[in-house]
Amino acid sequence: MSQVKDYIVEYDLPADSRRKRFYRRIQRYLRRNYMDEVGWSTGSVVVTKDRAFAWYVWREARAVGGVSHIYEARRLDTEPSREVSETE
């Protein structure tokens, strides 16, 4: 059984015009790739299942002088399979 991974990208952008450039590039990428299932938060975090997009956000944040980190995550709020005991 394969688990679907989410990719989480957190970033901190400079507080100048480069911030706008970052968001324009991300919006352009999303339109070009017909992506609508991306979770944005107000805390500079993106959650996506698309590995390429996660790495794109990571690179673009760094390209404008920001700091970024990328993580792989697995959802835990789905019902566990029968194989998993309730004590785990």
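^ that was protein a. below is b, sequence first then the tokens
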Amino acid sequence: MLNIYKSNKIEVITELLAKELIISPPFITEKLDVAVPNYFLGKWLWDQITISNQISALYEFKTISSYTEALLTKIFPAIDMGVWNFDSIKWGIIDSFEELNSYKESLPLSNWINKYLNNKKIIDGDIHNLTKKIANNFIEYLNFQA
């Protein structure tokens, strides 16, 4: 089962998840994966839920990229999902800048693409942030598409 909770207050999500684990705990053999944006937030959530419930259950907080890779591996077991991790997607985007620049649909991104291509393909903070945002959107789409 896939449950999606979205809030701008992490405390609300933490309380909701802690209560849900008390009301409906996973079976002893069941593994519950929770996707979080980064490792440190996952560690903090795990600590808060453990403090709230006074027990830790069989749940694991995974980064969104590792959760995506695990999900795709379950759906397509015959395909190597190593290329679907966050860093691989970012590098794939960077490697595609020249080709992407040839399409008129890339006009909103042309400032960044031209900066990268005209600057001897050096990756600066702007290029890194652009590819990070595109990769994040792609991964969120894969995780939460209807």
